Amino acid sequence: MELKLNYKRTFQIGFAFFGILLLWQVYDSWCPTFLTDIFARRMYGISSAELKAGDPEKILSVQWLVGIIMACDNLAALILLPIFGNLSDKTVTPIGKRMPYILTGTFVSAVAFPFIPLLFHYNHIAGMVIVMGIVLIFMMMYRNPAVALMPDITPKPLRAKANGIINIMGYFGGAFATVLGIFLKLSDYINAPDAARKLWIIEIPFIVASILMVISALVLFAKIKENEVAEEIKAEMEEGERLAAVATPIDDDKPMSEENRKMLLAILGAEFLWFMADNAIGTYIGNYVIYYLNSASSATMILTIVGGLASVLGFAIAGSIADRIGRKWTITAGLAFTFIGLIIMCFVGPTGNVTGAHGEFSFPAVLFAVWAIKGFGMALVHNCSFPMVVELCSSKKIGKFTGFYYTASMSAQTVTPVLIGFIFDKARIWRILPIYSSVLILGAFLVFYFLVKNIKAQKVENTTGLEALGGDD
């Protein structure tokens, strides 16, 4: 049997990723700065902008608290993602096993999300943190089943290319939030006196994210009929199992082989390290730009666009690269690119050229190149790593193994904000951020290079060009 990737259906599944990255881009870009400002008021009685002008080192002293709050969210995810993965594996409904979780998680998260900036604006820290927790819990209900949907209906040898497509869709979602952040500058809000702070500057991105997330979920529900598709491609999924890139064949009736178990643990260990590195940068880059580089927050958004475009390129070609050299070497190359980018970042500091309404410095242009290199590299990594994990299970356990993948990533994202926050507090040096991430990326590279085997799937044919967009392939 000839296996062909159904590009049209894969793009439709990508609407799930569109919603995930849309919400996460807004959450990660705005919430750490909200927390920095609100903790500065609690600890020093003044806003973070006033503290930056008078005693900028004290901004670093509240980052451990920011890290703890961000880590608590991830700790909840660490517990919930495997639970929802296992539950969805066993769920049977007329609309499928993943869709009930996707729809419920989307709508509750979308309703709660705009209350985060509202409660921050009125300096209600307890309410803001509670709502952040509610959003996170229901996004976890959404996230694992949404991610598991792709391997549910994609044969194993085709998953790297499919993963690239749905990640590109996700980056389009993140782009909506990023463009809003260019025009609605968080730094304009943060640097303004309390009386001049306008709620709409921070509220609009959250409202737009909620609306688009609901629309993406409805499109996904309308286009993907889980049960029908699963029945249609049953024979293709069985052929995919036969062609899988695994050391030993998968058999649900037997314990996991020792060789496959070692492979799984090595992949998850490396994943833990690169997510520690990437999440540290993602969590603190907004504060890094505002409080260290003293630049406008819109620069962070342009960074995100540059990194996103490079990521799209990476996702577009990662599957083809993996077909030629294998997923291991594709990921190893991606980690090498990322390491180079972060090493360059270690030598970048504030420019000192004063511009802007708030005496902001011009943004160091070399960071755009850094973000392009890092974005491309991490796209190669993310594109191939998840398919490698779910390659090691049968279709009956995709939710469970998706849970393993997210257990590693969320463990990292629970540890790293707290750890780097404490390092900031002790070292009082912002430049420690790229150094910290560089060391962790190097560790991930070494684990993958020495402990993960390069097992290539048997070659399959894919449709290309206009034919690939047809619905019947």
In words, what does this structure look like?
There is one protein chain. The chain has a single domain (7-455), classed as MFS general substrate transporter like domains (Growth Hormone, Chain: A), CATH 1.20.1250. With 473 residues, it is mostly helical. The longest helix is centred in the N-terminal third of the chain and has 38 residues, at 7-44. The protein has helices at 7-44, 48-54, 57-61, 63-90, 99-112, 115-121, 125-152, 159-183, 186-191, 199-223, 226-232, 234-242, 258-292, 298-325, 327-345, 366-390, 398-427, 432-451; strands spanning 354-355, 360-361. The model is unreliable at 458-473 (pLDDT under 50). The protein is globular and about 70 Å long. Helix 1 (7-44) packs across helix 8 and helix 4 runs parallel beside helix 7 (125-152). A two-stranded antiparallel sheet has the order 1-2. The relative contact order is 0.17.
Secondary structure layout plus pairing:
Elements lengths: L6 H38 L3 H7 L2 H5 L1 H28 L8 H14 L2 H7 L3 H28 L6 H25 L2 H6 L7 H25 L2 H7 L1 H9 L15 H35 L5 H28 L1 H19 L8 E2 L4 E2 L4 H25 L7 H30 L4 H20 L22
Antiparallel strand pairs: 1-2
General form: globular
| Major sheet summary line | 2 strands, antiparallel
Q: What Rg, in angstroms, do the CA atoms define?
A: 22 Å
CATH architecture: Up-down Bundle
The chain-level mean pLDDT equals 83
Whole-number count of domains: 1
How many individual β-strands? 2
Number of helices: 18
Distance between the termini: 13 Å
CATH class: Mainly Alpha
Task: State the share of residues found in helices, binned by percent.
Answer: over 70%
Q: What do we call the CATH topology? A: Growth Hormone, Chain: A
Strand arrangement, major sheet: 1-2
Beta fraction? under 5%
Low-confidence stretches: 458-473
Structural class: mainly alpha
